[in-house]
């Protein structure tokens, strides 16, 4: 059976190969027009017109290798479509469209650059990942999930993805630039400690951000201050979905799944699953545990479970009932301590989205207008220039990596298919969607607009 997923016209009966050619041709035209997307068979993946275009370009790149060009039919194919492919490639975004202004972040597998589009002067954050480093199957899967989360997103609590594209060496994610730095840098400004009212402001926004991820059908699994970014008006957005995992129909994460986030913020159930324990399933509750760890660090200026070695930290988390302590200084309110006790606990007892909204610690929060109000002492970045990166800590130098096997020694002979794991990566957000997102979010791109709102 030929199955179609209807995007704008509602679900209709599947097509049969016995349907008239004219009907099938009409539906095929709808696929190429973007009105209908083809349904894939792997967890709801879709192969729309962008994916079909990528498949053509990948095939062309493979066939252009000297070894395959010796085959008469392959050489004819390359020569026949060389001009058309060149035009198609020119229409797609590419790294040459941007000037790099600064590097604002580095991770194990990626680098985040502040870039300016040459044609328009617009700024964006460009996440760059080497295909050779992502070559392992599980890494490709999870960075594909990151791209999918960002493409699905329309929430003001998650950075807007503008483009996703690739070349032979790298894959790229171009996102809105958030110049306020991250929550870790902000904690450092306040000597690692907020008062409770300031903590309430950021925790309430983080509650909404985490829930927006869950609403997309994912669990983040790497909630930590470094992944909480601050826009130019002082509000937060949750970033870095390289460890995000899709939820099953039972609202759990398929185990085993790798990679996961930073150890100090991992919940007991994730650690149990990684060790192959008897209760190996977990769900969105693990993100609320991480929120509890962040809350603890905000007020007490220390981690609740980190201790010396990795083994000790893991043991403290797994035995949280014995190791969770509340310092006498600074003295915290009963409401705040109760919040921590209901987050740093067993998954079944842990507060979720609705429970957090109703908790007494957040009793003064106007949940419906979070992005329209600001705490009186909250941080608003002062930007000297549009491309100011002073709110980001200078990233560590990238460690040298050995060259991949594909680029060592003799050139590979024949079809390699090295780009096939990245088929379906391309994305371009419609201009109308971008305009709508800008109008509903206070994270505006223009400093002039942001300044006018602050007056």
Automatic annotation (TrEMBL):
GO biological process, one term: mitotic cytokinesis
Any single Pfam family the record assigns to this protein: Pkinase
Catalyzed chemical reaction(s): L-seryl-[protein] + ATP = O-phospho-L-seryl-[protein] + ADP + H(+); L-threonyl-[protein] + ATP = O-phospho-L-threonyl-[protein] + ADP + H(+)
GO MF terms, alphabetically ordered: ATP binding; protein serine/threonine kinase activity
Similarity field: Belongs to the protein kinase superfamily.
Region of interest: Disordered: 384-410
Domain AGC-kinase C-terminal: 363-437
Lineage: Eukaryota, Metazoa, Chordata, Craniata, Vertebrata
Protein name per Swiss-Prot or TrEMBL: non-specific serine/threonine protein kinase
Organism annotation: Tetraodon nigroviridis (Spotted green pufferfish)
Alphabetic keyword roster: ATP-binding, Kinase, Nucleotide-binding, Phosphoprotein, Serine/threonine-protein kinase, Transferase
EC main group: transferase
Domain (Protein kinase): residue spans on this chain: 98-362
E.C. numbers: 2.7.11.1
Residues holding ATP: 127
Keyword Cytoplasm among UniProt keywords: no
């Amino acid at each position: 059976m030929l199955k179609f997923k209807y995007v704008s016209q509602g679900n209709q009966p599947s097509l049969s190969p016995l349907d008239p050619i004219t009907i099938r041709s009409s539906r095929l035209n709808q696929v190429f027009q973007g009105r209908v997307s083809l349904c894939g068979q792997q967890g709801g993946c879709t192969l729309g017109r962008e994916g079909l275009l990528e498949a053509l370009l990948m095939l062309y790149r493979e066939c252009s290798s000297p070894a395959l060009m010796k085959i008469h039919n392959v050489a004819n194919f390359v020569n026949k479509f060389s001009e058309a492919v060149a035009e198609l490639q020119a229409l797609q975004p590419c790294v040459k469209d941007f000037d790099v202004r600064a590097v604002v972040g580095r991770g194990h597998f990626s680098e985040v650059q502040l870039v300016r589009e040459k044609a328009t002067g617009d700024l964006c954050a460009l996440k760059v990942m080497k295909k050779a480093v992502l070559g392992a199957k599980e890494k490709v899967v999870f960075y594909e999930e990151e791209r999918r989360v960002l493409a699905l997103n329309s929430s003001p609590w998650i950075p807007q993805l503008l483009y996703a594209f690739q070349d032979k060496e790298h894959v790229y994610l171009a996102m809105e630039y958030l110049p306020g730095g991250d929550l870790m840098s902000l904690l450092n400004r306040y000597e690692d400690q907020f008062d409770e009212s300031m903590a309430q402001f950021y925790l309430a926004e983080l509650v909404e951000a985490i829930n927006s991820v869950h609403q997309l059908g994912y669990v983040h699994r790497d909630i930590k201050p470094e992944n909480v970014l601050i826009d130019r008006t002082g509000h937060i957005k949750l970033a870095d979905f390289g460890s995000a995992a899709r939820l099953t129909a039972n609202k759990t994460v398929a185990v085993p799944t790798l990679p996961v986030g930073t150890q100090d913020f991992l919940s007991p159930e994730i650690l149990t699953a990684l060790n192959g324990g008897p209760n190996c399933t977990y769900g969105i509750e693990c993100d609320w545990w991480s929120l509890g760890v962040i809350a603890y660090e905000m007020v007490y200026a220390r981690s609740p479970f980190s201790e010396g070695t990795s083994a000790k930290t893991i043991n403290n988390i797994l035995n949280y009932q014995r190791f969770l302590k509340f310092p006498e200084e600074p003295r915290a309110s009963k409401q705040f301590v109760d919040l921590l006790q209901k987050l740093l606990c067993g998954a079944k007892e842990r507060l979720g989205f609705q429970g957090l909204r109703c908790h007494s610690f957040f009793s003064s929060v106007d949940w419906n207008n979070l992005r329209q109000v600001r705490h009186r002492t909250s941080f608003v970045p002062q930007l000297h220039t549009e491309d100011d990166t002073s709110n980001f800590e200078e990233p560590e130098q990238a460690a040298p990596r050995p060259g991949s096997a594909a680029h060592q020694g003799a050139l590979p002979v024949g079809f390699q298919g090295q780009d096939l794991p990245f088929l379906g990566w391309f994305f371009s957000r419609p201009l109308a969607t971008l305009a709508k997102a800008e109008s509903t979010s206070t994270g505006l791109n223009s400093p002039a607009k942001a300044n006018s709102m602050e007056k």
